[in-house]
Specification:
Family: Belongs to the metallo-beta-lactamase superfamily.
InterPro entries: MBL_superfamily_lactonases (IPR051013), RibonucZ/Hydroxyglut_hydro (IPR036866)
Keywords: Hydrolase, Metal-binding, Zinc
GO molecular function: hydrolase activity; metal ion binding
Largest sheet: 8 strands, mixed
Distance between the termini: 24 Å
Cofactor: Zn(2+)
Strand content: 15-25%
Shape: globular
CATH class: Alpha Beta
Bound molecules: zinc ion
Number of strands: 13
Amino acid sequence: MSSSPAFRPLPSLAGARAESVPGVKLQKLRRAALDAREAFVREGPVAAVATCDLVTFPYPAQFAFSGAALSPAPYVMMTNRMQVVQFVDREGERRTLLFNPSDYEKGVAAPFYRALRERYGAFVSDKVMSTRHGTVQSHLASLGLTPADVDYIAFDHLHIQDLRGWLGGDGMQAYFPRAKLLVQRAEWEMVKDLHPMQTVWFVPGGAEVPRERVVLLDGDVWLGQGAALLSTPGHTQGNMSLAVATSREVFVVSENGVATECYTPLQSAIPGVRRHAEHMGWEVVLNGNTREDSLDQYSSMVVEKLFAGTSAVEGAFVNFHPSSQLTTHVLAPALSPTIVLPAPNFGDVRPTPSARRAA
Ligand SMILES: [Zn+2]
């Protein structure tokens, strides 16, 4: 494994995470998240962030809102998105991180989506139920970046991911010549030895990449000014969220919720969501396709909610941006998002100086 670059931990969150009683832990996390946010924002904004739509695809409605939504439609539609983040690190270097660069042509090999394709046929699943917006490669080209500009790639978690095309392995040529994978140690260890209840969401062999391309993280990581990866376990054991500060707000991105309103369910117009949250006393509604660590997922969503704060454009909503965004679609009546916030975009993405020197 590669040694960890000079990243800093975020102040005060680690202590709260060590608490074992779930209710106490949540209380400690609430305070810690606000303290960490204050330190994060005080340091100033990120250099640049751009959001790129990748693909719209079906996802079971019962999972999307943990059973809270009342539509008879079996699927919601979600749009996978990638963030291109540029930050100045401790050494004063501008670095480029791709958050959720999904190689979605390969992701359909995960057993869940392979079975869907078998049930509906390739034409229906690939053409009717899916819409391709752009690939990682095409988005980078339109931002003026080459594969050598990418220093790091990271994912909120490794469901449906195949890393081999990006980093090499299994005889595949690496598309990114320099990039390293930033991944939580817990996620990396889990994916090497999956439990039967986890297997359905993972691409077989998808994490078989050269060891020297992998940087293991333990907890929250402050990448550089205005950019951090928050440890938000629950959906998977090594789940992470991207946090990006601009000059006026903090964006938080993950797949813990499928829509911004999942963080303020009393404001949801999706039939059933508000009433169910009220009945259950939930302040957040989980994306619930895994039930591995639901208490942790709930608490992680509260951390995300407090760290993000409110949107600068829609103050009644939390500035949370799903990496898989619930998307209005004719196949999913009554399952449209109540609000879609403007996606994280700030500053100007530029070629990475260290890539030019290395060339
Ligand atoms: Zn997932």
